[in-house]
Amino acid sequence: MKTHVLRIWCVLVSIIQLNAAEDFQWTKNNPGSFYHGTFPTGFLWGVGSSAYQTEGAWDKDGKGPSIWDAFTHKKGKVFRNETGDSACDGYYKVKADIQLLKELKVNHYLFSISWPRIMPTGIKEQLNEKGIQFYNDTINSLLENNITPIVSLYHWDLPQVLQEKYGGWQNISMINYFNDYANLCFEKFGDRVKHWITFSNPWAVAEKGYETGEHAPGLKLGGCGAYKAAHHIIKTHAKVWHSYNNTWRSEQQGMVGISLTSSWGEPVDPHSQTDRDAAERYIQFHLGWFANPIYRGDYPEVMKNYIGRKSAQQGLGTSRLPTFSVQEKTYIKGTSDFLGIGHFTTHYVIQKSFPFLQVSSYHSDQDSAELVDPKWAAAGPSWLYSVPWGFRRLLNFIKTQYGNPLIYVTENGVSEKVQRAQLCDEWRIEYLKGYINEILKALNDGVNVKGYTAWSLLDKFEWNRGFSERFGFYHVDFKNKNKPRYPKASVDYYKNIISANGFPNPREVENWRKEAMDTCSATHQLLATDSLLTRMEMLTEIVLPTALTLCILTSIVLLIFYLRSHH
Ligand SMILES: *[C@@H]1O[C@H](CO)[C@@H](O)[C@H](O)[C@H]1NC(C)=O
Ligand SMILES: *[C@@H]1O[C@H](CO)[C@@H](O)[C@H](O)[C@H]1NC(C)=O
Ligand SMILES: *[C@@H]1O[C@H](CO)[C@@H](O)[C@H](O)[C@H]1NC(C)=O
Ligand SMILES: *[C@@H]1O[C@H](CO)[C@@H](O)[C@H](O)[C@H]1NC(C)=O
């Protein structure tokens, strides 16, 4: 009798929980006008970057190769065959770049550690002291300048040896290797680093690395590889969180979270159930894929249903989506002290049935298609539309689905595609203003956001797009071997948002834009002069020596003629 009551009780509780978690209202929070106001005191403002995109020095001071070194060194993988071999030379410019952070007046800097720089072959038996020293010094310099380091342990550069030996994230053995690496970082840096991110955008690692092959390691394991990679990444994340909780937390008192990047999916018609379902699938297949196991103990129901059904149609005995055991679910649930959120853009989503296919794919599993509104501002690249209101909806969705977790925005920003230097980046100012304002609105909705990280400090290597997209507050002249940095107008604007802690009143906010646009024209001239100087440098370095050599050669020839004719 007792067990019966208990069972009924459990069923009731889970129904109530299910309902509580699914009451996201698709038609609420209509895009409104600009909201003037400030953020709560103590709100953290920062800027981010990642190791492979900025450091360069890919084979210096004992660093081992990563899958991105191997990938970019193959021809035909990256725009113009560009590589991150030297990128922004960030490895040699830590002090100078910290000055830029000071200029921006940020509270925190989010960066990633390159695993093969401190473990060249990925294993703890072989450490690279110079690599450890490098990150130790970086952390110390940041703290000396009152900048809080937020450190990501994985922004995509897996040691190449682990890829070759085990198949990278396809292999369950990554869990222990990564856990060793994470523990080393906690041991060496955890006395000073209090914000840890296990993985930055694992969605891209799985989908672009193992489904489409657009990213390293470039595998095209349609409909299977990405699910398996993600499965191992989620288990790894949980293991690292438990390591921290059991071994380091009591002494170091820090936080360990994960950073998930997701666009918002808006139903084309929010009053149509079909469209709402399609949009929900879109978000569950992106954000929920990782967030649901961590916050609710398992993959989203729609993923399990859709992938399971399609696998069965294909005659497979089991679903292509791996399953967690009961113990694993309990072990994984609740393993994030905060949720990092990366967000760039929004799509409209509609239902689209894919015909029965022998070839399976992550994309056709979703039965949905994405659209964009031609009216949306396309700042630079074709994939990034500025749709600020989508951010507030995404944040509210997180609040309802995952029990209002503590959120840090870990990536948000916009790129430009122009090749020539464009320092007056008014579209970036508009983008930041709009997106940051939606966070402010979300705070008023009760969403628990404690910090914002603009993406990114510098123009940098943009993965398979090479250097063709620029996300930086600072323009980097990659053609110049000194890789000089120049502030764009958005530096001034962001600085003002930070010092006012928001948007105090219309007059001030409008002034910021005007001032920023004025100063950038002046910087433009500086840049023009500098590139002229670079060309003159080239003149002295290449042209002059060549001319000199020619002169000497001619003189010798003439001398020989002279001597011959005098014989
Ligand atoms: C990249 O490398 C491939 C293979 O060698 C070559 O065909 C292609 O032209 C290269 N692209 C550029 C822009 O150099
Ligand atoms: C890292 O820096 C801290 C603080 O200055 C110092 O105590 C520690 O010895 C350094 N560790 C390494 C490996 O250099
Ligand atoms: C994982 O690595 C082990 C050791 O190299 C290997 O035996 C196994 O086949 C790998 N598994 C996969 C799925 O690649
Ligand atoms: C985290 O560590 C604390 C202290 O050791 C422990 O009481 C708690 O059960 C741990 N949490 C989990 C979920 O294991």
Automatic annotation (TrEMBL):
GO terms for molecular function: beta-glucosidase activity; galactosylceramidase activity; glucosylceramidase activity. The chain crosses the membrane at residues 542-563. Residues 1-21 form the signal peptide. GO terms for biological process: carbohydrate catabolic process. Keywords: Glycosidase, Hydrolase, Membrane, Signal, Transmembrane, Transmembrane helix. It holds the Pfam family Glyco_hydro_1. The active site is at E411. Its EC number is 3.2.1.21, 3.2.1.45, 3.2.1.46. It catalyses: a beta-D-glucosyl-(1<->1')-N-acylsphing-4-enine + H2O = an N-acylsphing-4-enine + D-glucose; beta-D-glucosyl-(1<->1)-N-octadecanoylsphing-4-enine + H2O = N-octadecanoylsphing-4-enine + D-glucose; beta-D-glucosyl-(1<->1)-sphing-4-enine + H2O = sphing-4-enine + D-glucose; beta-D-galactosyl-(1<->1)-sphing-4-enine + H2O = sphing-4-enine + D-galactose. Belongs to the glycosyl hydrolase 1 family. Klotho subfamily. This is Cytosolic beta-glucosidase. It comes from Columba livia.
